[in-house]
Amino acid sequence: MAEIIKRSNHLRQDINRTKKELAAGVLATAISLLLLEVSQGFSIYIGIAALLHMVRLINDLEILQFGLKGENEVLSLLEKLPRNYKVFSDIHIVDGSKSSQIDFVIVGFNGLFIMETKHIKGTITGREEDNYLQKVKIGKNGERYTKRIFNPLKQIQGHKKGMDLFLERSGIHQEAVPMLFFSSDCIMHVKSKRVKVITEPVQVIDYIKRYRREDVHLSSSIQEHVVEALERL
Length: 233
Fold this sequence. Notes:
It contains 5 helices and 10 strands; from the N terminus they run βααββββββαβββαα. The protein has helices spanning 10-34, 40-78, 152-169, 201-210, 220-231, and strands at 3-5, 86-95, 98-108, 111-118, 122-125, 132-138, 144-150, 176-182, 186-189, 196-198. It is an alpha/beta fold. Helix 1 packs antiparallel against helix 2 (40-78). The radius of gyration is 22 Å and the shape is globular. Strand 3 and strand 4 form a beta hairpin.
C-alpha cells in the first residue's frame, strides 16, 4: 500500500467553521424569540434574517460534507498504489498573489502526479480552451437541468504551473503530471491533450502505475527531496 501522508484538510476546517456559524444562528434565533415581546418588529427582523442565514449554512454544510466524503474515498483508492508511492492530500502552494489548492499529489519513481477530483454528476460538454463548460443533468422526473461550471481543465493546468514553479524553486527539475478525476457518475465530452481525464476509479491506479516517459525517472534521493519540500508547506 502507498504511504498516505496526512495533511490538515481545508474541508474539515470549513465544516467546523460552518457548524460554529450554524450554532451562532440558532442562538440568534432563540434570542430574537425571547425579545419578541420587548421589541416585536426588530426581533422578527432578526429572527427571519437568522433563519435565512441558517438555511444557507445548512446547504453549505451538506456540500462540504459531500466533498469530504468524496476526498476520503479517493484517498482510500490511492492507498492501493504500491508501497513505494507517497500520497499527499490538500496541498496549498502560494506564490505572491497567486495560490493553488491541489487535492492530491502522488510521488513515485515514474513521476510526480497532481490530481484534481470533481464530484460532479451529469454530462459535461465544451472545449478545453473554454473558461466555462456546460453541465447537463436529468432529474428524477426527467427534467433537464443546465448549469455553467468553471473549466476544471484550466484549473488543473493552473495547479500544474504552480507546482512546476514550486519544484523549480526547491531545486527539483521535474514537471508535474496533471490528472483530472471525476469520482461521481459523470460523462465527460471534453477532450484534452495536456491533462489526463479519468472517469473510472480503476483507471486512476492503472494510469499512475503504467505512466512512463524516457526523460522522467525520480531516483530515491529526488523523491526524498520532493517529499521534504512538500512536507514544509
